[in-house]
Specification:
Elements: E1 7-8, E2 11-12, H1 13-18, H2 41-47, H3 49-57, H4 59-86
Antiparallel strand pairs: 1-2
Helix pairs in contact: 3-4
């Protein structure tokens, strides 16, 4: 290791940055900075050609898949929120 590299607890500062290590040991390093889903996912999907084509060709399957996507997005957000709130 180069002599001029500063270390924090035996690790280089670059290591701390690369791995998200905090100087504040014990604090949750995971911060959820995205907002909760607001229902605009369906609007977004309607603007995507692949989903619009699916809607025209197989409307029932499209509705089923859109509902599944919405549910999974909500579940994923809740899991991430729990990680941020409780600690990873």
């Amino acid at each position: 290791m180069k002599k001029n590299m500063q270390t924090i607890d035996g690790n280089t500062a670059a290591t701390h940055v690369a791995y998200g290590m905090s100087k504040d040991v014990g604090k949750n390093p995971f911060i959820l900075d995205s907002k909760a889903p607001d229902g605009s996912l369906q609007e977004f999907l309607s603007g995507e050609n692949r989903f619009a084509a699916l809607e025209k060709s197989f409307p029932e399957e499209s509705r089923r898949l859109r509902s599944k996507i919405e549910k999974e997005a909500q579940e994923r957000y809740q899991a991430l929120k729990k990680m941020a709130d409780d600690g990873v």
